[in-house]
Amino acid sequence: MKLGISSYSLYQAMQMDGMTILEAIDWIAGIGGEHVEIVPLGFDLKQTPELIGQIRERAAKAGIAVSNYAIGANFITDTEEAYESEIRRVMREVDIAHALGVKLMRHDVASRQDTSIIRFQEDLPRIAEACRRIADYAAQYGITTSLENHGYYVQASDRVQAVLHAVGRPNYKTTLDVGNFVCVDEQPVIAVKKNIAYASMVHVKDFYIRPADRNPGEGWFRSAGGGYLRGAIAGQGDLDLREILRIVKRSGYDGFLSIEYEGMEECRKGTKIAFENVRRIWEEV
């Protein structure tokens, strides 16, 4: 297992303090991180392709791996032309993943206002076809593509599995975010147990959780069922992170664990404490 950090965790510092992705890599290595996950927020690898080689070089110099490349996508489109265009766009992002030297890439698949199971079942064949074509394209590079459980529409563990099985490719798996299941009011311990066998990448995240009738005020958002959620430092929130990490460890998973911090504390402080907590808990469970 290699414990590292998603660059998304440091997005606040990139936005407010001008931290660059190269400086983020140095910072991650400086706190003991073993890998960096590249999420292109605060920088654009398409507009500044020279940054791709610089990321590889900086990570190598810092002695850490570049683990995963994570981007957005949505195959729910109004026209066939737009659908094909989105598939081609994501394939170009696969080329960037290859240039980064990663063997893992997460891309989103679908977003809708109507998140009903009926709508999901209607959309599933087209979602799966797009993901299958992209996975087949990625196979030439030895890259495994993946679906993350987020965005409400394809977030519950059963919906993630439905997409995985419909795609039916050995190099198409899930980026398993252990915390995101609460956004659709699913119990994370159970959901992680159901989906860990399909994971190519694991995100570690924590949340504070409050009932729908107890509005905590500023800084919170709503789950699908109306509950209140706020990002927490991993190990300090309401998730049973010890049991979740025990499940991941006992499953035999031996890939990358990536801290994904999105709490209200200053991001470097929150990320560092989360990293230290997860490292300690992993050793204990």
TrEMBL record:
An MF annotation (GO) of this entry: isomerase activity
Keywords attached to this entry: Isomerase
Top-rank taxon: Bacteria
One Pfam family named in its UniProt record: AP_endonuc_2
Domain Xylose isomerase-like TIM barrel: 25-269
PANTHER family: BLR5974 PROTEIN, HYDROXYPYRUVATE ISOMERASE
Name of the protein in its database record: TIM barrel protein
Record organism: Paenibacillus macerans
